[in-house]
Specification:
The protein is α+β, with helices and mostly antiparallel strands and 293 residues long. The protein has one domain: Jelly Rolls. The protein is 22% helix and 19% strand. The protein is built from 8 helices and 12 strands. The chain has a 7-stranded antiparallel sheet. The chain has a 3-stranded antiparallel sheet with strand order 5-11-7, with no helix packed on it. A two-stranded antiparallel sheet has the order 8-9. It binds succinic acid (SIN) and manganese (II) ion (MN).
Length: 293
């Protein structure tokens, strides 16, 4: 799948593209049905909400579950990203965020590339976030909030927040958020929240400033977040465990368009649990690790 010149211009201007109903109900069901088994596992790859049992974020499902391994290779998801970068991409991060009914906590204002630069030493912003809704997203169940055009600021100042929620994040302070929202139109479009049916997809720039509120509604808001990085832009440090920031820089090889409906064979090497190597971390740059090996 390729993007039109209009879509490319819109992405450059706003920092995101929204594709409502991009995957059918039947395709989405193949994914949704696999979530309860993943969330039930007592493994490091499930991060739970602070003081609760509800899963906040699940990592690396594409290494564990066949339907998600197929999604990771879907041409309707990978195609437009590698088209925009004019380069092949690899999977940097794969999450299924719960934002469960009544329990889903906030994601503070942040940029993803800030974390990838600070923690993983990813050289440039040539990595894309993809969100795929597994539930309908409405104004009540904690939709994503974007500040349109904020990606043009590049990496903005951020603080490492280790306390607010159960997941550490480089967050942007309120004064800067106020300025960015004013610049984007204040009350008239300074914050947008793409909403739509399960199966909708968003592509958003790795420097786009975003957040989401808590989910006080009785409606789950499960969504997959995939981060695809241009192969030449792979991370240079393994400070975070491999199940969070992947170390296999092989270009993604796409499956046919019907891969969520037909059982194409895929590898799920971590299906019986994480290997010890997936938990190892290092502060050395990877060049140094290669020489030691
Ligand atoms: C994220 O920014 O990684 C997650 C935001 C959300 O799930 O609302
Ligand atoms: Mn994010």
């Amino acid at each position: 799948m390729k993007l039109s010149a209009e879509q490319r211009a819109q992405f450059d201007r706003d920092g995101y593209l929204f594709f409502p109903g991009h995957f059918s109900a039947e395709e989405t069901k193949a994914l949704t049905d696999a979530v309860p088994d993943l969330y039930s596992r007592r493994e490091a790859f499930n991060v739970r909400e602070k003081g609760k049992d509800a899963v906040r974020t699940n990592f690396a499902a594409h290494m564990i579950s066949e339907p998600f391994a197929r999604l990771a290779r879907h041409p309707r998801m990978v195609g437009p990203v590698s088209d925009l970068f004019e380069e092949e991409v690899y999977m940097h991060q794969f999450k299924i965020n719960g934002k469960m009914a009544f329990e889903g906590d906030v994601w503070q204002w942040h940029q993803d590339y800030g974390t990838w630069l600070n923690d993983d030493q990813m050289p440039t912003e040539r990595a894309m976030n993809v969100a795929i809704f597994l539930d309908d997203v409405n104004e009540h169940n904690g939709p994503l909030m974007f500040i349109p055009g904020s990606h043009v600021k590049g990496v903005v100042e951020a603080q490492h927040d280790l306390t607010t929620t159960s997941y550490p994040l480089w967050t942007v302070d309120n004064d800067l958020i106020r300025q960015l929202v004013d610049r984007a139109g204040g009350k008239n479009g300074g914050i947008v929240s793409p909403k739509g049916p399960a199966g909708s997809m968003i592509l958003f720039h790795s420097c786009l400033v975003h957040a989401s509120g808590s989910n006080l509604s009785p409606f789950n808001r499960v969504a997959v977040y995939l981060s695809l990085c241009a192969v030449s832009n792979h991370i240079r440090r393994f400070k975070r465990p491999e199940f969070i920031a992947h170390r296999d820089f092989t270009p993604i090889s796409m499956l046919p368009d019907d891969c969520l409906l037909k059982l194409y064979p895929v590898d799920t090497p971590w299906k019986d649990g994480l290997p010890a190597s997936a938990l190892e971390t290092s502060l050395e740059p990877i060049d140094a690790l290669e020489t030691q090996a």
